[in-house]
Structure formats: C-alpha cells, structure tokens
Amino acid sequence: MQDARIGVIGSGRCSREIYQLAERVGEGIARGGAILICGGLGGVMEGACRGAKAAGGTTVGILPGVRPDDANPYVDIPIVTGLSLARNLLVVRSSQAVIAIEGAYGTLSEIAFSLQLGVPVVGLKATYHDRQMMHADDADDAVTQAFAAIARLPAGESSRRRTTA
Fold first, then answer.
1. What is the pLDDT of residues 67-113, one digit of tens each?
2. Residue 15 pLDDT
3. Is 162 among the domain residues?
4. CATH code assigned at 62
5. Of residues 76, 84, 65, the one with CA closest to residue 26
6. Residue 163 lies inside a defined structural domain of this protein
7. How far apart are CA 131 and CA 4, in angstroms?
8. 38: which of 18, 90, 124, 137 is 20 to 30 A away, CA to CA?
9. Is residue 164 part of a domain?
C-alpha cells in the first residue's frame, strides 16, 4: 500500500523475543510498501526499524530530544522535537494505524492518543487492552490488520474520526 504510514510503538527496552517480534513487524510493513513511523529510540522501535530496513523500507523516528544522533542506527529520517514524552502525540498523528508491541506507560499514552483520535490500534502482546483495539496473534497478523484498517479509511483521511483530542 503505497504512501501508507504505520506507527510501531513499544518500550525503549525489551527482551530479545520482543525485539525479534518487532523486527518481523517492521519487515512486514516494508514489504507492504508503507513507511514505518516510531519514536526513533531503542528496544521495540529499533527492532521495527531494523526489520524495515532489512526489507528495503523507509523509517521515520520522531525523537523526544534535540539531537538527531540519538536515533537508532536504522532510522532514515530523524525528526527532533525537544518535546520529551509529548512527542508521543506526533507519532500517533503521523500514523494511519498503530501497532502496539508490549510496552509500558509511554506506549499506553500512545494507545490512549490513538483511541481518542480514531487512529486504529493493533495490539501484539500489548500490556494494555481495550475493546476498541484489534488484537493480533503474531507479527504477520498485526501487519495485515494494520493495512486492512488503513484500507477502510475514507480517501484522504489519516484517521477514522476526530481532529482534536
């Protein structure tokens, strides 16, 4: 799906298992032709970017600080914000769908922004669950659900509903 933007959210520190799961998600996003959006740091974000790059994809890291060098080595386009955790809203706003992999409070804030703004959320081993979220069994299922959610969006829209929180 050309020009689609899928966000991958999750902790900056994670187990090897979760890192590898994020890699598979990133690969699937790239194979589908979408741009991967994330917070640009380590853990789940790095794993997803690494997978996307291995599959020839493009990655965007929306960083909490002011130094592009803070981005993980697999980020193609580092966007510095100086906004700390507030950058989580930019990750969500820049994405047409979001895949939440495990995560902690920062991921929870991104899930909450997504649900408030009508950005579809797919949970994959997510630590938070909501009836408005889709839930995936594996990386391929998560990517398939994210692309399907984007395909259901009205032409020209990047989310289903709201323009304000």
1. 999 999 999 999 999 999 999 999 999 999 999 999 999 999 999 99
2. 98
3. no
4. 3.40.50.450
5. 76
6. no
7. 25
8. 137
9. no
Q: Are 29 and 74 in contact (CB under 8 A)?
A: no
Task: Locate the DSSP E strands across the chain.
Answer: 5-10, 35-38, 59-63, 77-80, 97-101, 121-124, 134-135
Domain membership flag for residue 161: no
Residue for token pair 């594996």:
138
pTM greater than the 0.70 cutoff? yes
Angstrom distances, CA of residue 83 to CA of 4, 38, 59: 25, 15, 20
Structure tokens at 133: 């979220």
Cα gap 84→70, rounded to integer Å: 13
Domain count, the chain: 1
Q: What is the pLDDT of residues 103-141, one digit of tens each?
A: 999 999 999 999 999 999 999 999 898 999 999 999 999
Q: Give, as one character, the DSSP assignment of residue 86.
A: G
Spatial neighbors of 115 by CB under 8 A, at least 6 apart, are: 121, 130, 132, 133
Number of H helices, E strands in the chain: 5, 7
